């Protein structure tokens, strides 16, 4: 099986939780896709790195990250998968608010100013989380080339409205949820 097929099987078996939940946006849903159970899983996380690199390989970026916490292990999986392929790819973490002490940074990691960066998420429903990261990255002087998620739950229109390309490895149909 390919990495993409293997990762889909991992998500279906370990990441989908059925039952009433309140989402980040405040909306209610009948299922939750808990991708922390995938991006922090020793078998699935390396697949995440390779699948997300393959999905975005034509985009020409040299740093990757997004809004903490969901985006963080996606970005580091990509960093390590890129290193294994001989490619130097930096990661960064966008804080939900600027740190009040220490370096007082909103974006942690190597500087992103003047660089082409990819904004990632584990999953997105409204686009709100990746677009918050995009705004912070643009304020920091980065050029955001696109947004990419592992599983899309419906964020395409919001991301297109922000003028950005959007890539997703899987949608709800792939998971048998739509
Ligand atoms: O904002 P949306 O585009 O609709 O996407 C949904 C968000 O919900 C989850 O994070 P959550 O807000 O639960 O926070 P966490 O990453 O800190 O767990 C997920 O990781 C996305 O960031
Ligand atoms: O919209 C969300 O908050 C959300 C949905 C989902 O399936 N998984 C997740 O982590 N967040």
TrEMBL record:
InterPro entries: OPRT, Or_phspho_trans_dom, PRTase-like, PRTase_dom. It holds the Pfam family Pribosyltran. Pathway: Pyrimidine metabolism; UMP biosynthesis via de novo pathway; UMP from orotate: step 1/2. Gene3D superfamilies: 3.40.50.2020. 5-phospho-alpha-D-ribose 1-diphosphate binds at residues 95-96, 99, 101, 121-129. SUPFAM superfamilies: PRTase-like (SSF53271). Its EC number is 2.4.2.10. Coiled coil: none annotated. One of its GO terms (molecular function) is magnesium ion binding. It catalyses: orotidine 5'-phosphate + diphosphate = orotate + 5-phospho-alpha-D-ribose 1-diphosphate. Orotate binds at residues 125, 153. Its cofactor is Mg(2+). The keyword Glycosyltransferase applies. GO terms for biological process: 'de novo' UMP biosynthetic process; pyrimidine nucleobase biosynthetic process. Keywords: Glycosyltransferase, Magnesium, Pyrimidine biosynthesis, Transferase. Residues 104-156 form the Phosphoribosyltransferase domain. Homodimer. PANTHER family: OROTATE PHOSPHORIBOSYLTRANSFERASE (PTHR19278), URIDINE 5'-MONOPHOSPHATE SYNTHASE (PTHR19278:SF9). Belongs to the purine/pyrimidine phosphoribosyltransferase family. PyrE subfamily. HAMAP family: PyrE. Catalyzes the transfer of a ribosyl phosphate group from 5-phosphoribose 1-diphosphate to orotate, leading to the formation of orotidine monophosphate (OMP). This is Orotate phosphoribosyltransferase. It comes from Planobispora siamensis.
């Amino acid at each position: 099986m390919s990495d993409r097929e293997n990762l889909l099987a991992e998500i279906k078996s370990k990441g989908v939780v059925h039952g009433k939940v309140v989402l980040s946006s405040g909306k209610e849903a009948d299922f939750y896709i808990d991708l922390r159970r995938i991006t922090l899983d020793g078998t699935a996380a390396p697949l995440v790195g390779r699948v997300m690199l393959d999905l975005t390989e034509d985009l020409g970026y040299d740093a990757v990250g997004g809004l903490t916490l969901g985006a963080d292990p996606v970005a580091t999986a990509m960093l390590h998968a890129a290193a294994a392929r001989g490619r130097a790819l930096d990661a960064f973490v966008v804080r939900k608010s600027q740190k009040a002490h220490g370096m007082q940074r909103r974006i942690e990691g190597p500087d992103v100013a003047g660089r082409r960066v990819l904004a990632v998420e584990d999953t997105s429903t409204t686009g709100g989380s990746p677009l918050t990261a995009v705004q912070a990255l643009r304020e920091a002087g980065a050029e955001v080339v696109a947004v990419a998620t592992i599983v899309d739950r419906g964020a395409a229109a919001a991301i297109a409205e922000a003028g950005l390309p959007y890539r997703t490895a899987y949608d709800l149909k792939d998971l048998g949820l739509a």
